[in-house]
Structure to design on (121 residues):
């Protein structure tokens, strides 16, 4: 099993910044991709940004140039720096980890409990 512990989030005014972090822990599982998804009220969950173990990142078009995702492989932790926040960034942000059970070809997908980010205009 993998546990994802999220921190950060909160409330800011438009144009402000927030930083989210997510630390993964557990045994018997090799994580390759970690990332953040978000779900606004009444909308589907969507990818915000993801990062592979080698450092390759993928961003939603709506956050490119404003958000930066980084990863500390030694700590199995990712950091999402969110700048120039807009009201439409308001959502619950969920950490995600994808990987493989050690010694098998079984792929698994884990989610954090979510953290709220609210941006007021």
């Amino acid at each position: 099993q993998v546990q994802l512990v999220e921190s950060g989030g909160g409330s800011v005014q438009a144009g402000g910044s927030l930083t989210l972090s997510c630390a993964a822990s557990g045994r018997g599982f090799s994580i390759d991709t970690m990332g953040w998804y978000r779900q606004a009220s009444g909308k589907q969950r969507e990818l915000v940004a993801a990062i592979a173990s080698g450092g390759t990142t993928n961003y939603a078009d709506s956050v490119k140039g404003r958000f930066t995702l980084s990863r500390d492989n030694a700590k199995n932790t990712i950091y999402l720096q969110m700048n120039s926040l807009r009201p439409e960034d308001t959502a619950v942000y969920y950490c995600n980890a994808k990987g493989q059970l050690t010694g098998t070809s079984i792929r698994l997908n884990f989610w954090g409990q979510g953290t709220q980010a609210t941006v007021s205009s």
Q: What stands out?
A: The chain has a mean pLDDT of 96.
